[in-house]
Structures
1.
Amino acid sequence: MIDSDILKLIEKQVKTFNIPWVTKDFHKHHNPFRVLVSCILSLRTKDKVTQEASLRLFKVAKNSFDLAKLKPKQIEKLIYPVGFYRKKAKNLHNLAIQLIKKYKGVVPNNETCLLEFKGVGRKTANLVLGLGYGIPSICVDTHVHRISNRLGWVETKTPQSTENNLKKIIPKNWWIKLNTLLVAFGQNICLPVRPLCSKCYVNKYCKKINVISNR
Ligand code: SF4
């Protein structure tokens, strides 16, 4: 089991950094629909672009009923320039229709149901469950996968096996916030290329697997 003190050090270090917009927005609105939609928009997209596109979309589509009324072309215009905006517009339109047909317009709080939507993978499903519904789950994105391997917490090749292994070693009360912490940590300290190890609060606990750092 990973010592909570190590996680607390990471938490302390990221306190002054920006947290991902999807998390920030949830703290303001407490709305799983917004988590689901903005997480879909965020895939392969910078945080600032996700934020602006989500806010444009949420102005006209506050829920799945509003979203279903929009044509994919209208959604495209609202969410441009997020990555794969054409595909995402189609997926979001279908998602809204499915939500209404199967779940009375409400985002399901169930992994199997969430994974049935086109454009929703484990990362998005786990974020909706954890952040949106407070159900313990670990959302593994590129930062969580990279940092967990560098630290030596896991030795994995895929996000799915990282998720499975982290569940065995991360205390459950840290599961939901782990993604927010490691995204902020990965964007500011444990950078993808040349991480800032000399400034890192968990330096002495890190195995630095495959790490090249001269700072
Ligand atoms: S010591 Fe370096 S590689 Fe390890 S977590 Fe810190 S920044 Fe990342």
2.
Amino acid sequence: MGGPFARSPREHSDEPLPGFKLAYPMLAADGASCGFSGVTLGRAHVYRAVDDAICAHGSRHACPSRWCDCGFYCFHEMGAARDLACEPDHRSAVLLEVAASGRYRRYERGLRYARQRVKTVRVGRCECGRPADLLADSGAGSVGWRRLLPVCRNCAADRPVLSPDRFAELAGGVQVVLEGRPTGLGPDEPTLAPAEAPAEDPGAVALLSAEVAVLHARLDETLARLEEVQARLDELTRRDRP
Ligand SMILES: [Zn+2]
Ligand SMILES: [Zn+2]
């Protein structure tokens, strides 16, 4: 062992390792099955819910190779995948929870690995900002596959759509979760609600106005008293001077 050509220890896991990633949901041209495609590297390739990585560059080596960037990728943390989903290019992607196994290489923020099982598909928002309930034909795709787009019922209108349940079934039994309102921007959420809700109640307004008047009166009294005391203090200090 050792020497200049010693390999870095290659890691292998029979135990599935949890990970998170973005993908585009895909529907086969014949409508009989669903899969996923990558949002960056390997965009042209569609993988199934349970699949083995193949080299994105057409090489025949086993993935992941030390000398190539191919293989499945995932983040260790869901937050990292959610952050990536905010980029305009990735707004129509879905978030996958996966189990990674086989040969893998570890990175600071995630893994590159050989075998993957998609467990959960998290569908976010429609392009209009409302929570998405359905998957519509996006108009994009690759040979043999149409790319699907998460849409709300309003925007779906009478377009042909796939329900989340049907997608789950055609993908081979993954779980699909609709979670279009993850943070901050919901109409029901307190961040956008008026801060002074009682102001709409006329009784409360009268009560608060009265309290404000009392406080002003007290403030005037206090200021008058302050002036008085200050004047008295000035007088005394002046008198004590030689
Ligand atoms: Zn490769
Ligand atoms: Zn919409």
